[in-house]
Each structure stands twice: as C-alpha cells, then as structure tokens.
C-alpha cells in the first residue's frame, strides 16, 4: 500500500486559496469526498467539495461572495472570481465551491434524511457520516491525506465498503444502496460482501427514495464505463424497487454489447438517451416511455430514447428513398445515432439476424451519401414554400399543403427536382 504520508494531491488554485483563507482565519479546511477519491484514482473530479471547522456564519464572513445553499445543513457555496479578459475587468465568471461545516448527522427517521444535523469540531466525525470508505478521505497540503476509515486500502483493492455498520448506514439512507452500485460501475470496483448482504436486506427501502434521486444515480450508473454492472440491481434485489416494469428489462444487454465491441469505455456512447435506449431495447415503445417518465427523465431524453427503441429492430431498406422516409420524424444527427446503434447490435451474436450487419453497413453508406451531397430530406428543405404557391395564385388552404407534400415526395425520390423552375412547371403550370 502507498505510504499515506507521502501522498500529494495537486489541488486546483481556487481550492488552495479557499483552504488557505480558512487556515489564515484560524480554522481547519480540507478538500473531501469524491474529489479526493477521483484524484487518487487519476480520474478528473466533477467538483471540489470543501469541509471545514468554521461555522456557516464564519464561512460567510471570510468570503465576500457566498450563497446560502443548504445553510441548515452547514453548506455555503463560496464563489471565486475568475477574470475572463486581461483588459476588461467587467468580464469575469464566478466559480462555485460547496463548503460544508464538519457535521454529525442526527437520527434518520424517514430512511432518507437526518432529523437534524449538528456541527462538530472533529474532521473524523465528519468523515464517519459519509457513505463509503473511498468517499471518506480528506486532504490538504498541511496535513496531507486524512484517511480514518482505510479508504485508501479499499481503493487499492477495488472495494466499495460502508463506513461503519452497513445495516445501520443503509437504514439511515436508502439512496446509499443505489450509490454503491453506481460507484461500482463508475470505478470498476466490487462491493464488499457484508455491504452487499446489507444492500439486499434494505433493497425494499428504495421505495422511500424520490424518483428524481433514483434516476440521477441510475443515469450515472448506465452512463459509466461499466454499464453492464446494472445487472447488480437484479443480483442485489433492487430492480423491482427502481420503478414499475423495471425488473422485467434484460440487464444482460450491456454485457452482450460490451463483449461484442471490446468494452464500453471504447464506445462513444456516453449520451444518456443512448444508454437508456440500450437498456430499454426490445420493449414496446409505450412501455419504454412510461418507464422513462416515471423516472422523471427530461422530455428531450425521453423522445430520443423512445425513437431509438421504436426503430432499433425495424429493418431499413438499402434504398435512398426509404431511408429519407424513415428520417422524417428526427434530425440527421439522431438518425445517424440510430444507424450506429443498429451497427452495435448487429455486431452481437444475439441480435445479428435482427439487424443484419451487411444491410446496415449499406444503409450507412447511402445515408452518408445523402448527407454528403446535402440532399433535401425534410419538408422545410423543399425549395418551394406555401407562400410561393399563394403568390402564384393558389387559394390558402388544404390544397397548398397537399401540393407541398406531393413536391416533397418527388424531391425525396429525385433530389435534382428541388428547383422552383422544375417544380412549378411540373405541378403548377402543367394542368
Ligand atoms: P460525484 O463524482 O458524482 O460528484 P461524489 O462522491 O462527489 O461523486 P456527491 O454526491 O457529490 O458524490 O457527494 C459528495 C460526498 O458527500 C461523497 O463523496 C460522500 O462523502 C458524501 N455523500 C454524498 N451523498 C451521501 C449519502 N447519501 N450518504 C453519505 N454520504 C454522502
Ligand atoms: Mg461530487
């Protein structure tokens, strides 16, 4: 194991500045939690959280710009100014850092939130309330790494383990059981046995957790480098408590795709909607939609994912006109993603026949030709507009729309027909 004393973490300038300001004022302050875990694993931290012995009022008096984010729980956001132009002092941005007073969580009554929190003078107490040992380390340049619960050795062994008694920790807050699997997937770790046993025992308590929180963790899980670990939700009895119909999905799909393509970290498929489309592949589109809605996903993600689910196993003919018809409900970009997803599935043993790799390769090349030649695809790309037809003497109404659709269909078959001269002479001045 690495010698803890010799560990150095390169803190960002702002974080060093914030910690320095606390120390100058006579307080302790450390970067803590996920940012320390990620730095030790050479991963880029999402954000840098700071924990301090200073009370919220004291935090606010040390820094000029602050926001009371969760002042009752001791969290204040400190805003640090960054100039964006050497010449114009008015051009700057404020970068936010969450600073939280060392705290001890009181009793948990609803399986999710502590009844009350109290502040503590002790960093160790603050680390003890954190969920997993790998998330319970703190660091500053003065004291070095503070690792009271052997997070470093668990990290080196690739283990997710609760701080303290897992049964107790999961009965305090059921979201932690889902976080365990999320970290497993993000870090490629395994869940320690006693922790895994306690997860099974508390799985039903997921019903106490809001769907928004469940979705946030589930999204991070399936967008990680190891989405195949979603199968853990079934192994650890959580699947039936995620949302209605979730347990009937097939968790194996990620493993199958990953095997066929050499691992998910290799695939440019990080977008949430694509990962949800994979998870929901083979479902009725209406079922897919209701699952995504229940999980409170945003409308854009739902629309894109449902389109992919709906079209994934419906063959596309290797024919330019057919491809353009199939493109109608979506953008070129999303259609390209559909082809990519079909290619991915066609590469697996299980779905070879459903998609047909050869066919989809030829669809891809025709699609790319359409894009390269900038061929008109959508009605709005038709050179003739409704106003042109009215100017040419047509009465506004149904017929204008019908004629535009007729012209559009012609242009889909023959892109070279997309000229005013041609379309007018064929459809307007030709009887
Ligand atoms: P991410 O990379 O997603 O930001 P993170 O570990 O930083 O991961 P956050 O949700 O940002 O996770 O929380 C920051 C820290 O707060 C965690 O590392 C952990 O120490 C603590 N924490 C967060 N949620 C919980 C929880 N439900 N129970 C106990 N401790 C928690
Ligand atoms: Mg974080």
Helix content: 40-55%
- Which range does the strand content fall in? 5-15%
Question: Regarding quaternary structure, how should these chains be classified?
Answer: single chain
- Helix segment count? 21
In brief, what are we looking at here?
With 431 residues, this protein is of the alpha+beta class. Helices cover 46% and strands 11% of the residues.
How would you describe what is shown here?
The protein has helices at residues 13-24, 34-40, 56-62, 123-128, 151-157, 166-172, 175-187, 193-202, 211-222, 232-235, 252-261, 272-279, 285-294, 299-311, 320-327, 332-346, 352-355, 357-372, 386-391, 398-413, 420-427; strands at 29-32, 49-52, 66-70, 75-83, 92-101, 103-105, 117-119, 138-140, 144-146, 159-160, 190-191. The chain is α+β, with helices and mostly antiparallel strands and 431 residues long. The strands form 3 sheets. It has a 7-stranded mixed β-sheet. A two-stranded antiparallel ribbon has the order 6-7. Strands 10-11 form a two-stranded parallel ribbon. β3 (66-70) and β4 (75-83) form a beta hairpin. The longest helix is centred in the last third of the chain and has 16 residues, at 357-372. The radius of gyration is 28 Å and the shape is elongated. Magnesium ion (MG) binds at residues 34, 46-47. Residues 33-34, 46, 49, 130-131, 135-136, 173, 175-176 line the site of adenosine-5'-triphosphate (ATP).
């Amino acid at each position: 194991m690495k010698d803890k004393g010799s560990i150095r973490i390169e803190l960002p300038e702002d974080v060093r500045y914030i910690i320095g300001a606390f120390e100058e004022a006579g307080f302790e302050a450390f970067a803590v939690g996920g940012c320390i875990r990620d730095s030790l694993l050479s991963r880029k931290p999402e954000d840098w959280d700071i924990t301090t012995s200073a009370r919220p009022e004291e935090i606010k008096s040390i820094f000029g710009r602050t926001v009371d984010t969760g002042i009752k729980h001791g969290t204040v956001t400190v805003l640090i100014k960054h100039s964006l132009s050497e010449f114009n002092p008015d051009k700057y941005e404020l970068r936010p850092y969450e600073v939280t007073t060392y705290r001890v969580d009181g009793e948990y009554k609803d399986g999710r939130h502590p009844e009350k929190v109290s502040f503590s003078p002790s960093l160790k107490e603050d680390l003890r309330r954190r969920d997993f040992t790998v998330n319970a380390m703190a660091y500053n340049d003065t004291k070095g790494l503070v690792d009271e619960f052997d997070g470093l050795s668990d990290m080196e062994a690739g283990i997710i383990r609760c701080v303290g008694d897992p049964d107790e920790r999961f009965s305090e807050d059921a979201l932690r059981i889902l976080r365990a699997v999320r970290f497993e997937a993000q870090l490629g770790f395994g869940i320690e046995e006693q922790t895994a046993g306690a997860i099974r025992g508390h799985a039903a308590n997921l019903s106490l957790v809001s769907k928004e929180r469940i979705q946030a963790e589930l999204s991070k899980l399936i967008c990680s480098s190891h989405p195949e670990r979603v199968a853990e939700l079934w192994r650890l009895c959580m699947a039936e408590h995620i949302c209605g119909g979730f347990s009937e999905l097939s968790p194996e799909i990620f493993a199958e795709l990953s095997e066929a393509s050499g691992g998910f970290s290799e695939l440019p498929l990080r977008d949430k909607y694509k990962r949800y489309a994979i998870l929901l592949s083979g479902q009725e589109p209406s079922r897919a939609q209701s699952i995504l809605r229940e999980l409170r996903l945003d409308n854009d993600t739902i629309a894109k994912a449902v389109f992919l689910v709906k079209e994934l196993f419906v063959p596309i003919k290797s024919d330019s006109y057919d491809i353009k018809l199939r493109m109608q409900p979506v953008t070129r970009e999303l259609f390209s993603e559909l082809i990519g997803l079909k290619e991915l599935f066609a590469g697996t043993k299980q779905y070879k026949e459903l998609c047909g790799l050869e066919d989809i390769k030829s669809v891809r090349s025709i699609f790319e030709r359409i894009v390269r030649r900038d061929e008109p695809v959508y009605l709005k790309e038709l050179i003739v507009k409704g106003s042109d037809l009215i100017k040419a003497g047509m009465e506004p109404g149904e017929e204008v729309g019908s004629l535009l659709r007729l012209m559009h269909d012609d242009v889909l078959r023959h892109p070279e027909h997309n000229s005013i001269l041609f379309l007018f002479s064929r459809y307007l001045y030709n009887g």
